[in-house]
Amino acid sequence: MALIPELRALVEASNDVEITRRTFRDACVPALIERYQAGRKAELANMVAERLGRQADAHPSQELLDLAIAWFHCNQCRKYVRYPGVLAHRCQRQYCAPGSAQRDDFDDPYEYDVANASMFRAWSAKTLRPVLDEDLRAMRSIIQATGLDPESATARHMDDLDARLTCNEIPVPWARKSEGKLIMNWRRAVLSLHIIRDCETVRWVRVSGDEKRRAVPLEEKAQLQRRRSQKARNSSSVHCVTIRGGSSPVRMVMRSLWRTI
User: Fold this and answer.
1) How far apart are CA 213 and CA 96, in angstroms?
2) What is the pLDDT of residues 27-77, one digit of tens each?
């Protein structure tokens, strides 16, 4: 929020300008946030359009981001993420421990002050790439295996279909096994692409209804275990974001923003 131009103008206003909580209410903060998020959505949609060889301005941003093939590879953690989850992905808005931010790491002194006050770096798509060239064919194979068209199928289409897939190239430890086959839903298949990236030929196949029924209980058990593990990690490593004392204009403005909203 502190990086939205209209709010930054309030932070950097001269000392003779009176800034109150009403000033922020009058700035229509929700509308500004919506516009700012629309800018991030357009940025990501342009990346997808460029990868698929389409004209970004010929398609609404949401239409492009809804495509089943619209995944983003984070070069930092080497995982695939989708919109809107990518907006909260930790690699794109890294935690900045108190006192760890170095002025030389920031081109803009204002962004440096914001990082110190909020303890997070501004969201950035610098480490994101749309589907990697080496994964594009396999990604299309996943969608085609369900009987849908990779050029038009959306993530919702794939979720509603709820098919299960298998790929013989994936080693046993990486997936749930049902009678000799490694079976997974389409999202798990995408997250497994890095395992088969060096394979010469990769072909995904949709399994039968009987095979799916045998695999689903194993999936549910694994999901429960993951939720328990995630809950344990979250309880032991919560980032408590507090505004420290001092006269920084960014800190004072953020305090006012949080009280207003």
Assistant:
1) 45
2) 767 777 788 889 999 999 999 999 999 987 878 899 999 999 999 999 999
pTM score: 0.77
| The pair of three-digit structure tokens given for residue 46, joined into one six-digit string | 């342009």
> What strands lie across the sheet with 72-74, from one edge to the other?
80-81, 72-74, 128-130
Quick one: the chain helix, strand, coil %, rounded to 5?
Answer: 50, 10, 40
168 contacts: CB under 8 Å, gap ≥ 6:
182
Burial state string for 160-175 with b = 16 or more CB within 10 A and e = fewer than 16: eeebbbbbebbeeeeb
Helix axes of 109-118 and 249-260: crossing angle, nearest 10 degrees: 50
Q: How far apart are CA 239 and CA 121, in angstroms?
A: 14
| Residue 39 three-state SS | helix
